[in-house]
Amino acid sequence: MNGRLEGKAALVTGSGSGIGRATALLFAREGARVIVSDVNASGAEETVAAIQKKGGEARFIRCDVSKSAEVEALIRGAVETFGRLDCAVNNAGISGVMGPTGDYPEDAWDRVIATNLTGVWLCMKQEIQQMLKQGGGSIANTASVAGLVGFTMAPAYTAAKHGVVGLTKTAALEYAKANIRINAVCPGLVRTPMITDTTSKNPQIEQALIADEPVGRMADPEEIAEALVWLCSGASSFITGAALPVDGGVVAR
Ligand code: NAD
């Protein structure tokens, strides 16, 4: 254990799978006590078990981030469990269906915005209240390269992720003097169920996606977790309001 987050109390939403799970595991490895939160209880319990197996401390609190009352209960539960909240990673998200802007279904738009944008804001709202009470903290949001550049056929996802980047910058300015740092990570293509649920059924899609990647491969979720943990640690103490691409060069193109 390196102990970069020794003694810290952390929360990771969407940590029942993919990037969130890898982040919760890395937080625990670095010495943090971790609240694992997700709508998917079985995935989250697997994450908790994996942390405990390695001697770490973790507890599952179920929460749908798009529901204000559930988010309030999540933050209350996190603070009751570990006494405070030093680090929060707002990561829960969905991809939504693909379709062009002029023909995108309204219910699909509402679902993506509710989870990927409103969900991040609802979590930040409660986390900030707690961090103000305790005199500081660090928040890292999982945005996307789709929060920095446009992606065809994904209007709701792209709008939500641009929204997360804007919200990150605004809140970072509002709370900079209150010792709360707020940043976003913008991953490129990451090998998680969000992608592999499609690519495993169609290797041609996977090949096409990879062919488009400057580094010629997808990221592993652990590579995104490293950035999220770093942004929550003291090692990034002068960084706030940043939207950090972790994308193998995609937005450099
Ligand atoms: P994933 O599907 O493996 O994990 C997402 C997790 O979020 C799941 O466990 C899911 O149950 C949970 N979740 C979904 N809706 C929720 C809700 N309303 N409340 C609480 N939890 C909810 O996908 P992932 O790739 O690990 O995605 C994590 C984040 O990374 C997302 O915000 C996603 O948009 C972002 N991202 C992913 C990629 C990629 O290529 N995989 C790229 C850029 C950004």
UniProtKB/TrEMBL annotation:
Keywords: Oxidoreductase. The keyword Oxidoreductase applies. Transmembrane segments: none annotated. Pfam families: adh_short_C2 (PF13561). The keyword Zinc-finger does not apply. It comes from the Bacteria. Gene3D superfamilies: NAD(P)-binding Rossmann-like Domain. SUPFAM superfamilies: NAD(P)-binding Rossmann-fold domains. This is Short chain dehydrogenase.
